[in-house]
Batch of 4 targets.
Target 1
Amino acid sequence: MVMVKNFISALMSAISNCSLYSKDHTSVDEFSRKSLKILENLLKESDKFEIMLIEDDLIINKTSFKEIGLQIDKLKKRLKRKGLSRIEFLPGVIFEELREFISEILETGKKMSVFPHIKTGVLDIQLEEVETGDDFDIDDISGFVSQQTEIVKEIYKDISSAQQTNIPRLNQVMGNFLSAFRKKVNVLKLLSYAKSREEYSYIHATNVSVLSIFQMRTLGIKESLFLRDIGIAGLLHDVGKLFISGETLGKKGALEEKEWAVVKLHPLHGARLLSSIKGLPPLVPIIAFEHHLKYDGHGYPERHVCNTKQHICSQVVAISDCFDALRSTRPYRRGLEIKEILSIMRKDTARDFNPFLLDNFTRRLDRALHALC
């Protein structure tokens, strides 16, 4: 994290000096070489160094930089002016290449040159259909989904009884769904409906996982490991509810104040449990803790407890969670139709949800729904 911040600081210093002088000025040369040296060290740990701008969130190597630092803020503004939302630095970057990149990023209205080791562009926002591997029976999608939910049921039983989870089985489910996202199938066909209260927890979890992977893919994210991580996070986001009595969760009427206070603790219980399980991606307990935070800062746990902005991936899971909860029949209300759900969610734009993510999600689900008609 420190090395990343140092790289951004050196890079932005080079850009700032280049805007004041020229790309050949000694100060630009100095900061360019400094940033290149840090970048070379970063690229020893990975096959690329990636910067993405999703609305106003800067994602660097799949980590959200939430703090408002001066150089981070400058970089976001510079990317917006240039019309870029993705930069990839690849091994082999040389000084002349980086210095030319620094010069061109200052030229608004002009398309970036093609560099051999620096890739620039915009996020590929597109409707993602679903693809599967060769062993997937395209005519038996419901059978495929049933198989995955049965595995998830076993995973939830392990968590409930032993407060542990079978990591290989988790990876198996994610691998199956990721392979399912390679063959053209409407994403809505991968969602299930719970037929009983006992089924709801793991079927809802499976649906949230699928919808979260779907969202990330429509944002242009293709890396399997990252998609696996957010899929697992979606699958386990509500495990804290295992600490709440079935009587409370299944209550048909309004919860009493004491009961509601207990329910609001489930993100904390879930995050604590998931933090104790070895082998889970670091993103998993974060999303379990934050999935009921809201985009404008309200929600729970309350801000004075967490004192942080909701992680961009938690924002994705929160949208998936809300959508599937509204489409599911619960003891206290009927399940809603998809058009009705999307209309309700749109009304909460900028309050409950990241407007950019919600707009992308509702448009993609609209198109998926129309494709079924």
Target 2
Amino acid sequence: MTVVRVAAEEVRPSATFTGRIEAKDKVDLRARVDGFLEKRLFTEGADVKEGQPLFVIEKGLYQAAVNQAAAGVEQAQATLNLAGIEVDRQSELVKRNVGTQARLDEVTGKQGEARGSLLAQKAALEKAQLQLGYTDIAAPISGRIGRSNISVGNFVSAASGTLATIVRQDPIYVNFPVTQREILEVRKAQGGDGKPSEYTIFLRLADGSRYAQSGRLDFVDVTVSQGTDTVLVRAEFPNPDRFLVDGQLVTVIVELGRGESALHVPQQALQADQSGAYVLVVDNDSKVEVRRVETGPGGDGITIAIRKGLEEGERVITEGVQKVRPGQHVEASEVKPGA
């Protein structure tokens, strides 16, 4: 026989919604140049740092293109230098009246062509260097990387799709839709002056347990979905242990305003019959007594708030309810609330 003493706890008005976890940042890695995938430099599912090398695409063709473009720059520079020498020579001849202006104009035009050719060759070199740099794929953000979708040795290109995905998991977002009716009810209850800092947000996981960290309201969308008449609301949660995962379905509990003290008993202590809800209490003489109770709002799925019928400190039976009857003398072992 196990009993728990009735305890007073703070109760805050709350609302429950269905939400979905969303990574704060999410990046799909893609190839920007064509080539065979030579290396994968990470462990799938591991944390990566911004700038960390992840994939290497074969470099041979792109390195050759850089060398060829560099040679073009050298050749264009030599041509420009020669054109400059010829312009200086013809300018001197014109000053001495032994050269013609037409010849000077001709070599000046060729100097301009050589200058333009040099600029084009430099642009080609810059493009070749960019493409060579694209053969090294690094992490654009810090986060956790998923599995590699393409194995080393395969040919990749921009059309190959996502090579791998990186998500930033700490902190993390939770998105949940709120109807216009619920928003209006909250505003009326708070006189229209509710502030985001007054809302405390918790998560209930698939197994019914509560996530250890509380969240804060981060964003309320500026438009209403015409299909569902809801507004998308986003909360931010710390996720240091990576417990929450992108795409995970959770229950969002939003507590509003200031709390009030209320009596709580474990959920398994509450019984019901045709006359309503009741609990079994062990009095000071160690006898079982039936107490009709009235429940109130504020339960968390583990405990139930009691509005009437009990006093703080009374002992309610939580285990062995089926083995006792009113008036029976019992020996009970007491456990702390929540144990």
Target 3
Amino acid sequence: MDVSKLFSVEGKVALVTGGSRGIGLMIARGFVLAGARVYIASRKADVCEEVAAELSKVGTCHALPADLATGDGTRALAAAVKEREEALHVLVNNAGANWGAPIEEFPDSAWDKVLALNVKNVFRLTVELLGPLRAASRSGDPARVINIGSIDGLGAPLLETYAYSASKAAVHHLTRHLARRLAPEITVNAVAPGPFESKMMEATLEQFGDSIRGSNPLKRIGEPEDMAGVALYLASRAGAYLTGAVIPVDGGSSNLR
């Protein structure tokens, strides 16, 4: 056993959706620094290109702007990946949306938007990329799909984000379903983050940050290394025998209440 290469992703090809900010950027940067060839996708082309250029200073990163809220956008992203790569070792389904509103005012449009991007897109993009994922699979080193769920999908959150929490619970179950169907060539696991510094969490942390830190068993919120670390584990030989799992990365807040 070569322990020095156990967590290596050097030379692997990875796609990270929503990779220009927040948790997606944390994962993309970790892969780039570890020697993977990384593609990041996000809706805003200028931001996507800017972030890819910045990450390319320390490794290899390419921008593939795409609007994953639509079926056409999802298919276009998959086509762009297949034009550039025969094999895709790692797919990180991170792109997502949130919506908060009081229960009496929660609109149908919120359900349509959030479920389409957070759940349907995860399924559709994975299916569209099964060819290059299977092409990357090797005995003992399958291709990997990493879905980004949330601790809000593990328990009922305090905030009124009904579509978001329901969508993340769906992502966790979809992960298990896909894991059963795609084994042994492809593993499918989910990460359920707790609070991390991100645009989605910005307002919540401004208002409740001290309380969130105080109630967390580890007395802090997540840092980029925490998210990069679990993604590298799942994408490397170290995580090759894990599939269908939902891993909370939350300082113990969902398990140690």
Target 4
Amino acid sequence: MLGPTSITKDSESYRRGVVFGLTMAEVLLLLVFCILLFLKLVNDKLNEEKENLKLANEQLSQSKKEITELASENEKLVSDLAKLRTAIATLPEANQNSEFVDKIVEAAIVLETIDPEKASEILYAIQENPNILQQTQFRTIDEWEELTTIAQYSVSASEYAVLSNLSEVQKETFFSNVEIASNTAPNDLEEMVAKATEPAPAPDPKEEGNNWPPIISLSEAKDYSFNVGSATLAPRFKDAITGSIADQIKQILEDYDADVIEVIGHTDPQPMRDDRITNLDDNSVDFLNSNRDISLRAKDNAGLGYARALSVTKELLKVPSLQGYTILPYSAAQMITPNEELQSGSSEFDGKQLRRIEIRVRRKQ
């Protein structure tokens, strides 16, 4: 056998300088590469944080700008409020002016603070006609709004006295014919108003034939409305129920010798949301018989019609002149149209006409 040679010795030396099959130089290069890769990741993370910081600074700058604008607006509001308080504090003691005139004065003070130019125009008009406020002293703001909105027509004191004595039905008839009235001679108009104010002859309950008591229909089309999807009465509707509507019901009860009032709630066919819940079973009795503040909720049209009938019934129960009469709430949901027919899916009536309260009277069996 041959002894070790220089070649075999070099091979053994080479193997002693290898780590996992790599030379020391290769291991060093691999280590440097790993370090560079790590530094690259750190640099990317730093760049990302810089971008986030830049975005946060921009948002902070925008927020500061908005806060500055809000502060400026707040200072203006505080200044306007101070002016209003000063103006109100200097108002003279209450005099014989009507509520309407007092409202005009208050509105003028606000307008002078907010829009001085417009206030000057109004002041000039009053200076031209100093008696303008005395000529328009209506009893309530609602009467003013009704006449100016529906009639769009200025009336004299004597004309207003006549109009204020009209019933709700007569007012509706009169206002629906304003255009005709405006083109009618004064004498003819006076005669028309006189006829309109004549009380209609009371029907004889004992008269034979189809002599049923009239139905009082209170639809949204006539501004008798509830909040959407709710049984809460609008303030104007509530006032009418305990006022003119109650008077009309009382008259019909006496004319027909009736003692039962039926309140029927009607709705449109629009379905309600599936996620609604009802509290009618638990709270209907307490709602009518207690002073608790209960908000009725319904999950379908049948329940909504009933809840709204309950709300009207509760107001009628408060009317002194209707004490002793039986008042019953019912629901017809969306099934009966205003012309006393079953709902067929298509209707000549719009939603406001369908969403209504009907009030009927009858005698107990």
